[in-house]
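<context>
A single protein, sequence plus fold
<entry> Chain with its tokenised backbone below
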Amino acid sequence: MSICILLLLFWWLPTKSFLNAIQSISFPVWFFVFSGYLFGHVLSAFKWRLLLHTVHVKINPLEALKAHSLGLFANLCLPSVVGGDFIRAGVVVQRHGQLIPITLSSLADRLNDTFALILITTVAGLSIPHSLEMDVGPWVNILASTLLVGILSVVVFIRYIPFSMLPTYWVEKISKVRTALSSLSAAPHITFATFMLSVLIQSGFIMLNVLIAEAIGIAISVYIWFFAWPLAKLIALIPVSLGGIGVREVALSAILVPFGVEVAPVVAQGLSWQAVLIFSGLFAGIMGSTLLERDVKK
């Protein structure tokens, strides 16, 4: 699917405009964006570690960084942008066990990031009158409402269903999930702090995209980027491509064209950001596997 989308984009786009846009990005901009992206994921590893500690899974900062790095690398070859979450959790489960608490904290971390994107795009959208004409707002509200209702329904089911109604096989598992949920709900300050960290990190990623866009020559308001980029990333959660490649670029183009932006520079910006993701993922994979090898030798 990723290959098909990219081939269609390259066949349809004016090649000269696309290549000129790519070439206009200087090395200092590339390096700053690359470094900023890696720093954002160091913060993300710390954020996830906080949630793990809340459910009584104690890992040190180096373990969190190793697992997060391998998850970031896995995003290069797994569907959607959440495929790496499974690898990240698996690295910690392999060493510490506690599958259910670790899975639950990873899910909470992903939900934090998702709701941070929804919050950012909604607040930014309210600042852009033209966005109201795109009928995007109702879809964002539907997505947020569906997620909230789904989460609350699952939580209520797990917390209050009588064990007598469950098969024996599921009683122990549901009991462990209840314990982990109780640990998370007992530390609302940690949950709120990690959510605010998600907002900060995603906002930082948006500003890195703005730097690339300005280097290419896309002159639009920062508010529009804070509206369009999170929305495109939410669409890229659909598991039809590797790491959201292609889907994100098509979505971003569709959102920005009504604001008077040409398609070729937008796709060039999106693929430039994708290049940052790929090189960062490769770098993270090398770093994570090196740390893993050291652990094995010990």
Observations:
- The chain has 13 helices and no strands.
